Amino acid sequence: MSQFITFTRKEFRESFATVRMYVLIPVFVLIGLMNPIVSLLTPSLMDALAEQMGGPGGEGMIITAWTSWETFFGNASGEMGMGTLAFVIAFCGVVSSEFSKGTMINLLTKGLKRPVVILSKFFTVSVLWTLCLLVAIGVTALFTAILFDPISFNHTILAFFGPWLFGLFAIALLILGGTIVGSFYGGLAAYGGVAVVLGLLSLVPGISRFSPGGIGQATYSLLAGVAQPGDFIPAFIVTTVLIAGMICASIIIFNKKRV
What is the average pLDDT across 152-170? Predict the structure, then answer.
């Protein structure tokens, strides 16, 4: 446990010593701002587009707080969400950076246990993902409350649990890809390949109910009361099992890897 705490402190220090968290936090603030503001301006934007291109305008469009939250789930989460992609790009070298800097050999020769490296990195990046997501949720909630009439939520905790869990799934993928390949591109390749597969699976009704790809965005329907928790429990369970499997696989591979 002492090794885990020490290595985790190092990971947090390095995360804030570099520019990535100072870039990611403003990105998630921007995402939080975009959701209510873009939603509010959508009718005007549609009218302007109609004048230029002759299409339908924004008359008759009903814009409410639900529109803002629907935009949030599209922008902040999911395999192609802006927030998820920004976070993946920022942390795609979470494992490979230790190899490229040559610090891994020094740490292991000093007695650091290999499983600690994987578990600590997963824990650290998961905490940072939680922080970023909470920033986006908080900013969206604040400006939605200012710009729109209040609404009541359904299954609030479970609805936001979906995007958070998909972020952990993405982090586990980055760690597994980086452990296997040992380079910056390993994590990106792993995430990119799986994102394409998840996108295809979402088109298959019988399989999409169990796919991690749907939980990031579709849980908006939980918040609005359109869907029930039981509709998403299978995907939550499958995603959790996959996360645990990828972390275990990363530990096994890293234990056998020459550094």
Answer: 87
Q: Are 113 and 3 in contact (CB under 8 A)?
A: yes
Q: Which candidate, 199, 196, 173, 203, places its Cα nearest to that of 186?
A: 173
Separation CA 165–CA 232 (nearest Å): 12
Q: If we measure between CA atoms, which residue out of 91, 80, 82 comes closest to residue 33?
A: 82
Distance CA 11, CA 250 (A): 18
Q: What region does 139 belong to: left with phi over 0, alpha with psi -120 to 50, or beta?
A: alpha
Contact yes or no for 166/77 (Cβ under 8 A) = yes
pLDDT band at 135 (very low <50, low <70, confident <90, very high): very high
Output the six-digit token pair for 115.
Answer: 């499983």
Q: What confidence tens digit (pLDDT) does each residue in 43-73 have?
A: 666 666 555 665 555 555 677 888 888 888 8
Residue 41 backbone phi and psi in degrees, to 5: -90, -5
| Digit-coded pLDDT (tens) for 191-207 | 888 888 887 777 777 77
Residue the block writes with tokens 């010593």: 17
pLDDT band at 38 (very low <50, low <70, confident <90, very high): confident
- Report yes or no: 243 and 168 within 8 Å, Cβ to Cβ: yes
Q: 3-state DSSP call for residue 69? A: helix
